[in-house]
Amino acid sequence: MGREVIFEGNKFLVLTWEDIMSHVETLAKNIKDTYTFDAIIGILRGGLFVANLLSDILAIDEVHPLGIRSYTDIEHRGEVKIYHWPSLPSMVNKKLLIVDDVSDQGKTLRAAVEKVVKPLGASDVKTAVLHVKPWTSFMPDYHVVTTSCWILYPWSRYESVRHLGKRLIQKMGLDGAARALSTLLNLDYEKVCSTLKESSS
Length: 201
Known about the structure:
By secondary structure, this protein is α/β, with parallel strands linked by helices. The chain is built from 5 helices and 9 strands. The protein has helices spanning about 15-30, 45-60, 105-115, 155-185, 190-200; strands at about 5, 10-15, 40-45, 65-70, 75-85, 95-105, 125-130, 145, 150. It has a 6-stranded mixed beta sheet with strand order 5-4-3-6-7-8, sandwiched between helices. It has a 3-stranded mixed beta sheet with strand order 1-2-9. The protein is elongated and about 55 Å long. The N and C termini lie far apart (about 35 Å).
């Protein structure tokens, strides 16, 4: 599922909302066949989209956001920072599912499990993602696809524009960069152009 594209020498996987829904349905079936949970913790930002969709399919009412960042930009991966703790009144004796969009290096999921959820007393913790990178240091309990592509999710299109745009503007100018990115990401040219202008000012 998704569209693989070679762009500026790199391989990207471009995903639509329809692709995401199909992956989430597969993930939900794998989970439903093996386990039940009291609550879902969705890692901001991408994991929360997946967590909400899973909660609907699995009929799990409680979804709690957890803010952890590990990527600083498309080329560099920064240190893991916990900036928003889940609002569960108590995790003691809870069976919790931690959800993210991708396990790349694995730092984010590892921090969620080891630094947040387990220390607060959860009785059982499982992890689920849509995508896994072959080099990840943390293999989740559930995943759908393994890929080495840089993944372009529908909820981070303009983030991708800002990160990719920096190099492309130097190489092909604002107009060329905007046209290339609007084609790659299936976005309106004028909106891409405006985003690039704002991010480079």
